[in-house]
Amino acid sequence: MPGVHRDRIKAHGRRRLLLQTLTACVSNGYVQGFITGKVFGGPTKAACVPWLNCYSCPGAVASCPVGSLQTVLGGRSRGISFYVMGLLVLFGVVLGRLVCGLLCPFGFIQDLLYRIPLPKLELPRKLDRALRWLKYVVAGLLVVALPVALRATTGTGAPFFCKFLCPAGMLEGALPLMAANPRLAAQIGILFWWKIVVLAVVVLVSMCVQRPFCKYLCPLGAFYGLFNRVSLYQMHVERSSCASCHSCVSACPMGLNPEREVNGPECIRCGNCKAACPTSAIVAGFELRVREALAKRDSAA
């Protein structure tokens, strides 16, 4: 691998790591919460960040959109949160799953876990593709259908995804709160141990498989993926420059072939493929910038 190409990949990795770190710190910047074991309750908590970030994290300065949506859907008001839905649609239309690849703190945690030097696994293609549909089932069933159905029968629904499945809630919320406030240990029940098992499985699998939660379970990724092909931010593979060396395939954390799937619903737009391409055949940016880049390239040729 030429030195310039290798340096470009390293530089991209450093920039991405810095952005992910800043996002995680800004989202969970209430340091006092980690010391006192109390959840931040300031005015910014009424706002939502566009990525998965637990409301109960003692450092969280804003709310998780998935948790907020479930709270409204399962509430007594029988309303729809146009604020939360509008926010999700806005970020979907503008960025698509770039939110997952560059901004989401739990995606960042998975990236760090995968760096642990353990044997890496690759699921059989058919199994992998089948499992990717699970996140749509999670989104439709746990996030929307069950809270609404329970509200219709009992008057109040429950945040099923947050309560029974979300590993970010346990890692970012429950465990830090218990560490800072030991009295919470007296309230531990079977649900806590179930969530510990879920978190342990996700953590262990993340050490051997890249981004398993993003691939198979995340309802937010499922939603943003629906906008990938129409979002303002786009990626493009210039066929005339592509050497079909598959360097982009090896670099993709989602196990995709960017030549065919660069703007598909599974692409998290992390930019790894673009950095790994030795011929600079992959361009990325907002649609106008992509068109300008292609026009300049064609005119130069």
In N-to-C order, the SSE pattern is HHHHHHHHHHHHHEHHHEH
Helical content band: 55-70%
Question: From the alpha-carbon coordinates, what is the Rg to the nearest angstrom?
Answer: 20 Å
Most strands sheet: 2 strands, antiparallel
What do the pLDDT scores average to?
Answer: 90
Number of spatially distinct domains: 2
Which terms would index this structure?
17 helices; single chain; Alpha-Beta Plaits; 301 residues; mainly alpha
Question: Explain this structure to me?
Answer:
- The chain is mainly α.
- 58% of the residues lie in helices and 3% in strands.
- It has 17 helices and two strands.
- It has a two-stranded antiparallel sheet.
- The two termini are 25 Å apart.
- 39% of the residues are buried.
Structure at a glance:
With 301 residues, the chain is mostly helical.
Please describe the topology of this protein.
Layout (H helix, E strand, L loop, with lengths): L2 H25 L3 H6 L28 H9 L8 H13 L3 H6 L1 H10 L10 H7 L2 H21 L5 H6 L1 H14 L9 H17 L5 H5 L2 H7 L7 E5 L9 H5 L6 H4 L10 H5 L5 E5 H14 L1
Helix pairs in contact: 3-8, 8-13, 10-11
